[in-house]
Specification:
Distance between the termini: 99 Å
Largest sheet: none
Number of strands: 0
Order of helices and strands: HHHHH
Shape: rod-shaped
Number of helices: 5
Mean pLDDT: 86
Low-confidence stretches: none
Strand content: under 5%
């Protein structure tokens, strides 16, 4: 039959509280970063607009960069690296918008 030992209980309670506090603190660190939903959507719409403007043939370098960063953003988002996904999405949007602008400008200049 086991006896109740107050000394062993006093020694284990602070260590248990310390472990639970540490787990709670480390678990909450993942909640500090928000998902970059807006940036991902903006990058996607910019990429689709560049594709519709025929940027893959009229501005292939910028279009490839936009595609590369968009795929990296999607991969980082799936792996829950939200900070990297946000950075890649912003870069993808920037290159896609440049590619779209150049392709529209080239089309306009051809029609003159």
């Amino acid at each position: 039959m086991r006896t109740f030992n107050l000394n062993s209980l006093i020694r284990t309670v602070p260590s248990t509280i310390l472990v639970l506090t540490l787990c709670l603190f480390l678990g909450s660190c993942g909640l500090a970063t928000t998902r970059p939903k807006l940036e991902m959507r903006m990058a996607q719409s910019a990429f689709v607009a560049a594709k519709e403007a025929n940027a893959q043939t009229l501005a292939p370098g910028l279009y490839r960069k936009a595609e590369f960063y968009y795929l990296k953003a999607k991969s980082s988002y799936k792996r829950k690296y939200f900070n990297k996904a946000k950075q890649y999405a912003i870069l993808s949007q920037k290159f896609a918008e440049k590619a779209e602008y150049i392709s529209i400008r080239k089309k306009a200049l051809e029609n003159l």
